[in-house]
Amino acid sequence: MSGASQQAAAHKAAGNRHYAAGEFVEALQDYEAALSLLAENDSEALVLENNRAAVNLKLRRAKDCAECCCRVLAAKPCDVKARARLARAEAAQGRPAEAFRVLAAHPESACAEDRRPLDELRVKLEAAEALLASGHAALEEGRHVFSRLEDDLLFDCPSLLASMGRCYLVLGELSRAIHVTSFLLRRDSSD
User: Fold this and answer.
1) Residue 185 and residue 165 share a domain
2) Does the predicted model carry a pTM greater than 0.85?
3) CA distance between the termini of the chain
């Protein structure tokens, strides 16, 4: 193993420790440092891109996550983890149809056990889309739907966040409505 490969492995291990500890910014820095030491065609680079995608999901950076996943899928179209993360990132950016398209691609490529996370995500997206489309039912179920969405997806789409805030307001969840509004205002001022 060359010196650069050893350094990359050390950065990857440090990134894994940071990720496990919930220190996502530090994990991302370590994964990026490791990636910078490897050749683009190194098989370990795909693993690191997938790790970066996972960290970006945790940091609620849907666009960055999607970019990492696309790089992985360009080299390895059947990568189930990258496909599931890309679908989550697309949904988080307010593109559920694109998320479904991502999930439907290469269905023959994974065994049933590997497809389980994709199928579970598809079911959650379908349920969320159906509830949100039904208006009245969405208001009745809104509190539960948004709680699940907050846990399972991220929101990097201002229009989706604004809709979520309006629903919280109608449901009488004032603290959540204020939280969403403050997040949008902070996000707007940083852009």
Assistant:
1) yes
2) no
3) 43
